[in-house]
Amino acid sequence: MEEAALWPGGHRSALCISIDVDGIYGEANYRDPDDRYWLSQTAYDPSGTQRLLRLLGDSGVPATFCWVGKVAEENPDLVRHAAADGHEIALHTWDHRYYTRMTPAEQREDMERSVEVLTAVTGVPPVGHKTAGWRYTRETHAIEQELGLLWVMDVPGGDLPFLDQPNPGLPPLVHLPPSRWYDDYTSFVEQVLTPQAAFEAWRDDLDVLRDEGGAMCLTLHPFVSGRPGPSRALARLVDYAIDLGDIWIARADWMARWWLERAADA
Ligand SMILES: [Zn+2]
Description:
Elements: E1 13-21, H1 25-30, H2 36-41, H3 45-59, E2 64-67, H4 69-74, H5 76-84, E3 88-91, H6 104-122, E4 128-129, H7 140-146, E5 151-152, E6 162-164, E7 173-175, H8 184-188, H9 195-212, E8 215-220, H10 231-244, E9 247-249, H11 252-265
Parallel strand pairs: 1-2, 1-8, 1-9, 2-3, 4-5, 5-7
Antiparallel strand pairs: 6-7
Bound molecules: zinc ion (ZN).
Zinc ion is lined by residues 20, 22, 26, 92, 96, 132.
């Protein structure tokens, strides 16, 4: 019997462009509250989001925006703009606090509040969640499953999605694998690569994944990849992937639904 295709439509590999809109709350987790130098850099988030939306629109590719609930509440027009352009709007916690510092009840409340706000802003309930800084606990994924979410992007356990069913009586969660080496924070904040160098590193990843059939889930931030020069790293990668002709550039929810269907057919 022929083995089930890894990706739909004859594609050899998949690319998910996920963009975390942290606002000031991401840096507030890592820095001293008085550190205006870093906190103020995140004031660029709305401008960076607009540039990324233009870039994605010019290339005609979809992305997944993981929006911190509080930031979505403060700037709902930008969330609606992204949704109207055909991008997925997903969760990225309420205020970017680490779930490792929260009880399971607090995590649940944090997710419920975020779901409520994003649903109110876009009219569509979000189906995916990326925890802040990938800081989740043993209970996090069980709570996400109970809340009826479809996908999470926390565990770099390999190059393919995998299913997780903490409660066997409920539908499984689809894990999509992120990586710190597909994170613009690694390329442009922890070190400062040129956009060309960041593109070349990501291109090498994509080449290997294409040979092997894997998926690449980028993690970008508007105040980083939305800056003028760094935005070229993404633009070049998107052009490269489009020119290859067999990379499925997909929203996280599309990727997760495909993985579920594929598992059901197996
Ligand atoms: Zn974040």
